[in-house]
Amino acid sequence: MGRFLSSRIIEFVSLLFLLLVILLHIGQYAEFSGVATEQAWLTTSDGVQLNARVYQPTSLDTVPGIVVCHGGAGSLQMMQRGFSLEFAKRGFLVVAIDMRGHGDSGGKFSFLNEKDVMAGVDYLFSISNLDQGKVAVLGHSMGGAAVFREGYSDPRVKSIVAIAPALSPYSGMNLTSPRNLLLAVGAKDNIISESIVLMLLNKTTGGGEEVDKLYGNFSEGNARKMIVSPRIGHAGEVIDRYIVEESIAWVEASLDIEPTQSISISPWLNIFLPLSVIASLLSVFPAIICVRELGKLKREVQSPEKTGLMGVGKLVIVYVGAWGGSVLSIYFRSLFGWVPVVFADTLVAYYVTASIILLLATIFFKQTNRKLQLSLLDIKTSVVLGVSGFLVVFSALNVLFSWTFIDLLPTTRELFLMLGLFFVFLPLTVLDVTWLRNIQNKLSIKPWKRTGVTVILYMSEKLLILAFVSFIFRVFLWLTLTFLFIPGLFTAWMLEDKESVIGGAIFNAFFIAWIVAVVFPFGYFPYL
Fold first, then answer.
1. Residue 404 class from Cβ within 10 Å (0-12 exposed, 13-18 middle, 19+ buried)?
2. CATH of residue 90
3. Which terminus of the chain, N or C, has fewer Cβ atoms within 10 Å?
4. 4 within some domain
5. Which whole-number Å values give the CA distances from 516 to 353, 387, 491, 498, in the listed order?
């Protein structure tokens, strides 16, 4: 990367990355002080195996219990920092669940999964030191709807916290069911609006419409309240200090628990995610160092004049292959027959939109540059460098986010899905990187400026694609923008420093396949 950034800058940023990792793990160690965890496997009434994590205070006294459920495209990890650890520190026995179709759990993705919550409650009641008269359930978004449904059908549940409950059912609810209900939502939530949650309050109070007002009373089990966090959107609700504090206070009051301490949320709650995101941005620099040093062990690639070419005709073939692959993936509804496509409609929308954009860009520029470095020697070298760079970023992001907000380490099922998606995405990423290289070669500016333009073009194209995919992604736009910087900078470096299209394409295909495989739930929407 010496052509546009000095080695000292790369090494300094890599050192900063390591320091942030150390800081995050010190904070993580402090967060788990006084809390023991263990993995558990639950079986639902319809036979689905669920992965769960049990958080238990070190005290062996009889303790209250709570089941914690995440939202769609999430995992039990995302509820850990804000809720699971905070409740465990205050003496609760916590069972956090990977809902069906998510994380390590089995089954297919579904919004109607109150059976998962029931399995969590059943497991709580199997633990000897549970105070069986003091059990609560809490969930966000999809999990909010699940705990809502379980709350009005299971008399064992004495307190419910439903945060931005998605697809909330109206049948079965009344003035006393579910018991002791707290509804919470962010004022900037554009998925589950404040008006939707207000409708639930209205139906469970017999007409109540006032936010922050306590309806009913805890002793009779008909307490209701709705809170709104003023500056939070859907994704931020799981780590919002106001919602967390109100949830803790509500559960303790509704279970008649005398607080042993004032509600004091860990200062790490709102620090972990920003620090993790900042460190993730820097993770590409250790990858560049690794690839740079590994490249020194390889033979220098042949001069551009002696390499093969890829003209418009070949790129059109790549385009047709990419588009055709997407159509086949939705037609057969699976990549291998036994591994379901995740969000098949989203995958196809990405393919079709990206392919059209890139094909038009390729035709507009007439032809590709002769410095594409597509000789056999370059392909071998680029494969090694592209895979090596990905493995470094893969390891770095897993170290950063493991036990913080999301588990990015793929399960066996997700690993097979990831490998399948790699081959599906590869033609598209070759096309993507090729047109970026073509533009880059036409820019007669300083190398560092050319690299910056390449990164901006890379990220802008992806954000345009996401706008076509689904409105849901707008909630995570800033986080998506952050993660796009990683493959964007690595691709720009491979093009500028190594003049390699294939290396950048391989890195991108692996990166996209990895994120899709581990973040999106598996299975199909009920209506597909």
1. buried
2. 3.40.50.1820
3. C
4. no
5. 17, 18, 19, 28
Co-location of 245 and 104 in the same domain: yes
| H helix count then E strand count, the chain | 15, 8
Q: Could you tell me which residues are beta bridge partners of residue 186?
A: 229
Quote the pLDDT of residue 506: 93
More confident residue, 109 or 124: 124
Asked if residue 237 and residue 307 are part of one domain, the reply reads no
- CB of 63 closer than 8 Å to CB of 251: no
Contact yes or no for 23/16 (Cβ under 8 A): no
Q: What long-range pairs does 22-29 form, CB within 8 A, spacing at least 24?
A: 23/275, 24/272, 24/275, 24/276, 24/279, 24/400, 24/404, 27/268, 27/271, 27/272, 28/272, 28/403, 28/404
How many domains is the chain built from? Answer: 2
Does the residue 27 lie in any domain?
Answer: no
For the residues 18-47, what does the mean pLDDT come to?
91
Distances (CA, A) of 497 to 323, 480, 488: 31, 26, 14
Within a domain: 315: yes
What is the tens place of the pLDDT at every residue in 477-509? 566 667 889 999 999 998 888 878 889 999 999
Q: Which region among 78-92, 112-126, 129-143, 321-335 has the lowest average model confidence (pLDDT)?
A: 321-335
Domain interval for residue 142: 32-270
pLDDT at 221: 93
- Show the tokens assigned to 479: 């986080």
* Pairing assessment for the beta strands 130-140 and 93-97 based on DSSP bridges: unpaired
- Write out the H or E segment, with its range, that includes residue 184: strand 181-186
What's the mean pLDDT when you consider all of the chain? 81
- Predicted TM-score (pTM) of the model is 0.86
Q: For residue 37, is it within any domain?
A: yes
Cα 218–221–225 angle (5° rounding)? 65
Pick from 92, 89, 47, 91: nearest CA to 68 = 92
